[in-house]
Design a protein that fits this description.
single chain; Alpha-Beta Plaits; 5-stranded antiparallel β-sheet; 12 strands; innate immunity; secreted; immunity
Amino acid sequence: TKIPFRLNQKQALLTFEDEAVAQRLLKMDKHTLNLDSEIADVRVKPPTLEMGVKFELHLTISGRKIIVSEVPELSIPDDWMRDKLELNFYKSEHGGGEVEHVKYDRRSRTAVITFLRCGATQNIVRCTKYPFFLSGRCYRLSVSPDTNAHLEKFQIYCGVSKKTILLKGIPELDNDDESIQDMIEIHFQKPSNSGGEIENIKYTSKGATWVCFEE
């Protein structure tokens, strides 16, 4: 899972290999940073990550039901249309089978066809358009499987990376971003500066950028 974090201008993110190094620096709150010939007091804060959502999506596809749409509008009673649909989907040459129930809705021009045998829908849903013969004409019905989707293990979280620190208030320098980033990394690599081995670092002097943390 990737969690986004907005890094604003004059800020840097440092992720250490050892969690203890980051926690030690966070307890100091402020840190004197030596950038070439520039000495600056910067604030050390924990990066609060954006709120995220985790869930599992479970999708069940029915082997007995199909959804039929684009049923033609004809001047015949609803029960006649249900009978015509049942007879049409009963034909095995078009991949159908014995029909248990037909639910037809004239207003939406849709129908739900329920077959008696499980697995009867496999051949039908392979073609998105299904032939429907009525009154000497052949119509094309849109066919799709009946599905049921539900979510499980839905979680909302807002995390903090224990190995990462956020530096705020880094002064403007004439150097480019890469050079300043290298100086910050060298400074915090040294145990004499309460630092340690750095896994990742990102600095931006102007504008804002997005950094992704992987859970």
